Amino acid sequence: MSIPDYHHSLTGPFWQGAAQHELRLSWCRPCAQAIWYPQAACPHCGAALHWHVLSGDALLITWSEVAAGLNPHFSEAYISALVSPVEAPTVRLVTRMVQCAAQDLRCDMPVTVRFEKLQQLHGEPYVAPCFTVPQG
Ligand SMILES: [Zn+2]
């Protein structure tokens, strides 16, 4: 496993956005929808895709708490999750839930993006879009 490739032709803009605290998805303007995962062109109409900045609001689809360090690259306990951005309800983003406890999570609850600096065993830290339960 390596840190994100900021210059990758398909996924680089996602990680560049995260570094700037923007949640971006590849988007087809003619189809008016997200195309996820990123592709060279829209699979429906063939149009070129662009990157669309989202609000960061999403719904929690499912999650799993990893209590033991099974993956040496992520030695701390963490909560992996799938969330669906409000602007792209068919998309499932693989992410982490942070700043919350697993017992407080519910399916379909509103969550919001929170950009976290992640550190693997080797290499530079990088910023990833994680999600949390909004306060208040
Ligand atoms: Zn399209």
Task: Characterise this structure.
This protein is mainly beta and 136 residues long. The chain has one domain (12-132). The chain is 6% helix and 37% strand. The protein is built from one helix and eight strands. The protein has one helix at 12-19; strands spanning 24-28, 33-34, 50-53, 57-66, 78-85, 93-97, 110-118, 126-132. The strands form two sheets. It has a five-stranded antiparallel beta sheet with strand order 6-5-4-7-8, covered by helices on one side. It has a three-stranded antiparallel beta sheet with strand order 2-1-3. A hairpin with a 7-residue loop joins β7 and β8 (126-132). Zinc ion (ZN) binds next to loops.
Oligomerization state: single chain
Radius of gyration, CA atoms, in whole angstroms: 15 Å
Helix content: under 10%
What hetero molecules are bound to the protein chains?
zinc ion
Summed up, the domain count is: 1
* Residue-averaged pLDDT: 92
Count of helical stretches: 1
List the helices and strands in order: HEEEEEEEE
- The fraction of residues in strands falls at 35-45%
Characterize the biggest β-sheet: 5 strands, antiparallel
The count of DSSP E runs of length 2 or more, i.e. the number of strands, is 8
Gap between N and C termini: 37 Å
Q: How would the global form be characterised? A: globular
